[in-house]
Design a protein that fits this description.
- The chain is α/β, with parallel strands linked by helices and about 350 residues long.
- It has two domains: about 110 residues, Rossmann fold (3-Layer(aba) Sandwich); about 170 residues, Rossmann fold, CATH 3.40.50.
- It has 14 helices and twelve strands.
- Strands 1, 2, 3, 4, 5 and 6 form a six-stranded mixed beta sheet that branches.
- Strand 11, helix 9 and strand 12 form a beta-alpha-beta unit.
- Helix 3 packs across helix 4 and helix 13 packs across helix 14.
- The longest helix has 21 residues.
């Protein structure tokens, strides 16, 4: 596999393949850029269809972390890790210890944390083998609530800019994906008076949302076609593509999923469709902001994390205003802003 020739290879500084025969560990760690500091980004455990799919994911995610950390004002570069396989079958203390040793071998160039199918308990096991871990219980802990808070504030910023509304009462929001972050976001939207339409592969969580949040449940493919103000992708990436853009009735896309655009050209397509897009790595930065305070040489403080997460609102407004003034896609503008920050170091 010619990594250097891949479309998603973006002059990544390091791509490391890790394996451990005894535990079944097969992982890839990608360090995209360390201009601002050591790379940081979560580790996800996913049953990829192929190693090529896993590599594509980790390359895209690590680049996104570089831009995310830059736009969040963090002195961190971008990195990511993926563990390949079915977590229900492969998860073990020994596997996470092996992963911890792999992280430790990078000597602090990459700090890991929890992501999809990884818990704070799993990270505690990784921590047995390396200090280059964040998101630990007793310190910053689960980053999910902070990701949800940042996404909620990002939705408020988009609604203010696009609809000139400060409140969310009666706002219709379609949420795709009710994992820990997506459900927490729904709770905040519900409390703010928004009307929710939701979908997920987990029927139990959908029932809970219907009962607790008065949410309307629709099918996985139906979520795009709902007559709503905001479409909030909170599952895996590439949900915004040629087909779904043509189906969307929402005028705002703002959610916590990574890599929401299937291709870069969809940024321009959204602009032409009159849809305001909140760049994913800007709106979903709450989690990394939280765990960053554990990486920095200072005591973790939840109040400080919340203060920094609140600034996501202002950062997105800057992106929206600059994009509007120059008639450019918001993703392109955010990328340019991030690259300027990274170049300055």
């Amino acid at each position: 596999m010619a990594v250097f020739d891949l479309v998603d290879f973006d002059n990544h500084e390091q791509v490391v393949y890790c394996s451990d025969e005894k535990t079944g560990l097969k992982a890839i760690i990608a360090v995209h850029n360390t201009n601002l500091g050591p790379s940081a980004g979560g580790c996800r455990f996913w049953n990829y269809a192929s190693d090529a799919d896993a590599l594509k994911d980790v390359l895209r995610l690590s680049k996104g972390m570089t831009y995310k950390n830059a736009m969040a004002g963090l002195k961190l570069g971008g990195g990511k890790a993926v563990i390949i396989g079915d977590p229900k079958q492969l998860k073990s203390a020994e596997l996470f210890q092996a992963f911890g040793r792999a992280v430790n071998n990078l000597n602090g160039r990459y700090y890991t944390a929890e992501d999809v199918n990884i818990t704070t308990g799993d990270m505690a096991i990784v921590h047995q083998e390396t200090d280059f871990v964040s998101g630990l219980e007793g310190k910053s802990g689960n980053p999910g609530p902070f990701t949800a808070l940042g996404t909620f504030l990002g939705i408020k910023a988009a609604v203010k800019f696009k609809l000139n509304r400060d409140d969310l009462t009666g706002l219709k929001v379609a949420v795709q994906g009710l994992g820990s972050v997506g459900y927490s976001l729904c709770e905040q939207l519900h409390a703010a008076g928004a009307e929710l339409i939701v979908t997920d592969i987990n029927q139990d969580i959908l029932t809970k949302a219907a009962n607790e949040l008065n949410a309307t449940v629709v099918g996985l493919d139906e979520i795009y076609r709902q007559d709503v103000d905001v479409f909030s992708p909170c599952a895996l990436g590439a949900s915004i593509n040629d087909q779904t853009i043509s189906e969307l009735k929402a005028v705002i896309i703002a959610g916590c999923a990574n890599n929401q655009l299937a291709e870069k050209r969809h940024d321009q397509a959204l602009l032409e469709a009159g849809i305001l897009y909140a760049p994913d790595y800007v709106i979903n930065a709450g989690g990394i902001i939280n765990v960053a305070l554990e990486i920095y040489p200072q005591e973790y403080c939840a109040d400080e994390a919340t203060r920094l997460v609140n600034n996501i609102y202002n950062t997105l407004m800057q992106v929206f205003e600059k994009a509007d003034a120059n008639n450019q896609p918001t993703g392109l503008v955010a990328d340019e802003m991030a690259r300027e920050i990274i170049a300055k170091g």
